[in-house]
Specification:
Blueprint: E1 3-7, H1 11-23, E2 27-31, H2 34-43, E3 48-51, H3 60-67, E4 74-78, H4 83-91, E5 96-99, H5 104-123
Parallel strand pairs: 1-2, 1-3, 3-4, 4-5
């Protein structure tokens, strides 16, 4: 079973994401700040990270650079929808980029695709 970490400081959005993912058979763990996330990721690497950009203290782009060596697939989920931000996120190595507000069904489909794509890549 895939474990998905959610790094999102808006607890309502974090709860919506976690609820949808759990109902689809995934294990989730949520974090509202980078410090807690870094501690946990040093103990256990997830199958996927859903990452907000605008976080207190550090932004998601910086976190992406930090975790790149861990080869964790990332989907950015953020209110920052400018093309410049989307391109930056993808060039930093994100597998996908979803702009808020989003539809939960679309999120689940994107999660499924990224996990399937990443699993195939890891098996080669």
């Amino acid at each position: 079973m895939a474990t998905i970490y959610i790094l999102e400081d808006d607890l309502n959005i974090q709860e919506i994401e976690a609820y949808a993912l759990k109902n689809s058979g995934y294990q989730t763990e949520g974090f509202d700040n980078a410090r807690e996330f870094f501690k946990k990721v040093s103990e256990r690497v997830p199958s996927l990270l859903l990452l907000d950009i605008m976080l207190p203290g550090v932004d998601g782009f910086d976190i992406m650079e930090y975790i790149r060596p861990l080869k964790i697939p990332v989907i950015f989920i953020t209110a920052r929808g400018d093309v410049k931000d989307r391109v930056k996120g993808l060039r930093l190595g994100a597998e996908d980029y979803l702009v808020k507000p989003f539809d939960v069904v679309e999120l689940l489909a994107r999660v499924e695709v990224v996990l399937r794509r990443f699993h195939k890549r890891g098996a080669q």
